[in-house]
Amino acid sequence: MSKSISIIIIYLFTASACHAKQEEIVFDPPTSLEEAISQSTIRVEALLEEYPGLSVSVGLGDSIVWSEGFGFANTQDKEAMTSGHHLRYFSLSKSITGMALTKLIDSGKLDIEQSVTQYLPELPAHYQPVKVKHLISHTAGIRHYNKGEWMKLSQNSCQTAAEALDVFINDPLESIPGEVNQYSSFGYVLLSRLIEEISGLSYYGFLQAELFTANGIEHIHMDKSADVVNEVSYYSRWRPKKQSGKVAPDVNNTCKFGGGGLVGTASDLVKLHLKMLDGGFASTANTAAYYQSFSNTKGESVGYAFGLGSNTAKSGAPYNAHTGSGMGANCVMMIYPESKVVVVVLGNLEGNLMNSHIGKITKPFLELSNGIPE
To answer: Does position 21 have pLDDT exceeding 60, yes or no?
Structure first.
């Protein structure tokens, strides 16, 4: 077992123990949408004890059934969090990059079995064995952030993904492409560059043209865009009893692009995923592939699909999930494709406290849709 997996398991165990009181809350399966929202609200309010503010949105079937803000968007001015506030998505951005790639696959413009150098021939020679699918599945061997590098990069501003490559592109690969699952946000920056090259548009320009505009997605933007309105204040520390915290240093995530550079509302992210589930961006086969895990060279699942973690619940139901965290914010998303349940929770405090709560928040809606919770 890798060190990173061990740390995650230890964290989940510790978080479960710390929140044992919440886990003792047992509800009968809800029989109405109102009851499901009430049960989930209780769980969100328990999580709110650790956060300045939270924004929650839930999609069920083909529509958003609940969006609500809790706590504060800005504690200094006592501004209440609403469903209309914008928050950083961080790595939840990867799922949107995955949609963009699926759109290119569906149009016949992208073959993920090909080397990335077929589309970007200017890349260093050591990228020749790297297939596009290796970048998507985090098996390309590209390194992740070095110590202190995330914050250093967050002081820069980028207009195109090409500007963001120099920091890592000439570094040697750390494993043979296809063999090892090694998480890398830089891989998704390179995928953003790939989208630009194939489409002839900027990364965000492609998202607008192919995913957002026609589907009424008005509240997802690149970080620091002039179009970002109603953004929250972000906190690095929070003292629940005093209801006060330390404001996080300002950062610029534009150079992270499709790996972590988007901001938006919880409801627009849910709306986008409902459209994906409904086959609105690709054929039935390519839509299904979006949620399915890739395999390594040994044929073993790597537990990662198109910008989403991919797993199976104890019930046998497949589900997808992803977290995002960085300076001043934490977010998490869970999707049950077969039940068409999508849940997004965004918070304005750094850390990962909400990660162990997403299953409990999702559970009532999964039960309502006749799914069986994990």
So the answer is: no
Residue 282 in tokens: 């690709």
Structurally, how many domains does the chain consist of? 1
| Residue 374, domain member (yes or no) | no
Neighbouring CB atoms inside 10 A of 41's CB total 17
Edge-to-edge strand list for the sheet holding 318-326: 79-80, 63-74, 53-60, 341-347, 329-336, 318-326, 309-312
- What residues are paired with 54 via a beta bridge? 70, 347
CA distance 224 to 237: 22
The whole-angstrom separation of Cα 370 and Cα 374 is: 13
Please tell me the pTM assigned to this model.
Answer: 0.92
The rounded distance, in Å, linking the Cα atoms of 220 and 202 is 15
Q: Is the pLDDT of residue 374 over 70?
A: no
- Residue pair 235/328 in contact (Cβ under 8 Å)? The answer is yes
Q: How far is CA 192 from CA 90, 100, 149, 186, 202, in A?
A: 15, 9, 20, 10, 9
- Percentage of the chain beyond pLDDT 70 is 93
Identify the DSSP state of 358: H
Q: Is residue 138 part of a domain?
A: yes
In a domain, 338, yes or no: yes
pLDDT band at 24 (very low <50, low <70, confident <90, very high): low
CB 310 within 8 A of CB 300: no
- The domain of 110 spans 3-368
Rounded distance between C-alpha atoms, residue 230 and residue 50, angstroms: 22
Helices (H) and strands (E) in the chain, counts: 11, 12
Read off the CATH number of the domain in which 350 is found. 3.40.710.10
191-212 pLDDT tens trace: 999 999 999 999 999 999 999 9
Pair 237, 348: CB distance under 8 Å? no
Q: Is residue 373 part of a domain?
A: no
